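pasting for ref. prot 1 ->
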Amino acid sequence: MNTQEIIGYIAALVVGLVIGLAGGGGSILTVPVFVYLFSIPPILATTYSLFVVGVTSLVGSVAHLRAGRVDLRVTAAFALPSFVSVYLARRLLVPALPDPLFQFGTYALPKSEAILFFFAFVMIMAARAMIRNQRPEAGEAADGRPRYVPLALDGLAVGLLTGTIGAGGGFLIVPMLVLLAGLPVHRAVATSVLIIAANSFVGFLGDIHHTDLNYQFLLPFTGLSVIGIFGGLWLAPFIHPAHLRRGFGWFVLVVAGYIVLREVL
């Protein structure tokens, strides 16, 4: 095992730690870790990411369920439409994308590079939201009556994102649960973790029909991520969420910049 791989396994702990601390966000690191530290092809890296994120988030959601913080009705309203789009994205959309994805004259953009550019764009948007700490404390549904149709439509969109880039999308889910379901932030975070777990597993199921997976690598990496989430759940009461999200947002922005530079140069 070389130094680069050791750093990659340490990053697995960080992924779980951040999910445990913030209820999301750590999953956005998995694809860059797989691609740049373990030299895994980008499309396969998104598959691995779905598995790691699914297992790690499921472990975190169990703790939230036991504490009674998860709104199961809202979870169903958001997640069921999301299941459809994430499964179709992994089973049909991603395999059907042409390679190269775009060609103009002598320039060709391979599908793998296009996925990474899109991933970097999503990371920049996530970092922006984290740095600005745009997490509303109350929303349009503060009367306690969730807006189920907008929730379902948002679920479809987030499922498409999850299926395409292999990230959970918690930075999108939490604000929508606050605004459209009227959930307090702590319940929105807990509900988001369960939705992320379910979406990731559905997306992974859409892949196993046409992908050969290295479980000897994937399972130890996932195990380290699970260990990390227990550390995050333990540390969460001691760290102010706003400080954590802002610091992690800057870190995500740096990683996104690295992806863009790595692919351009």
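and prot 2 ->
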Amino acid sequence: MADIAQGGAVAPKLDELMLAMDVVDTLRHQEGLVEKALSEDSRDATLKERLRTLYEGQGLRVSDRILDDGIRALKESRFTYDPAPPSFARTMALLWVGRATVAKVAAVVLVAVAVFGGVTYWRAASTERASEAARIEMSVTLPETIDTAEAALATEALTSDAKAEADRRIAAARAAIAGGDAGAARQAVAAVADLRATLAQTYELRIVSRPGERTGVFRVPDINTQARNYYLIVEAVTPSGDVLKMPVTSEEDGTVKTVDKWGVRVPKPTYDRVAADKSDDGIVEDNILGEKPRGSLHPVYEMDVLSGAITSW
């Protein structure tokens, strides 16, 4: 069994100090060693004996001087760290010790602030750009578009009904622009563009007479079963031979469909004339029902027709 600070050799000061610290730590953490109910002298003696027994159980022999010094150090609060009270200097010192962590947190905060600022600026700039673009559209772009279209329509509309329709659509567009309604203004300008496209079209209304296809049909009205409505099936063919799709309103149900063939209502004599033309050889030689010239809204018919059309048969 080792003999510390006793038995001839003098233990080094550092060993004694470390042992005294260990005694204090043992006193502080071992439950049951300090018995406050005892008197001061009795408690010190009891502590010394219990400490001696504890160390001897670990194979160490500790001198009375070391034990007394440890008990005294406990009373004097030696070898005990008391944190400094809160202060500016303490706070700055803690920040300096943790400067790496503080720097990382600061960097994250700076990045977050930069991102937030960038997003806010981008949104504000986008809103400003959109507002400016809308202002330019309503004050410059659309009015200039209407001015250009009006000047063009003055020469493109060649019939009285075409001129009247051009005036109506131009007036509607200007009213929408003046009212500040961007959606209505765009629709009105688009309607003017559609009118110009319609006026520019040229095509023939050809009566269909291909094998396997109907050239004409008739309907019996529900309200007058003694009458018949006659229709010739036509298609719009451009000078280059293309067949156009046209919006057609059916008089039977009022729906508008975009179709490449439809039925034009005609008087019975016109219907019979075409039927006779086809009956001799299966081909309608006189197959032009009308022609839509440039600058007009509607075809000019070469045969007698009536108002009304159908889109299915």
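The chain has three domains: 2-75, 101-200, 203-310.
Confidence is low (pLDDT under 50) at residues 1-12, 35-39.
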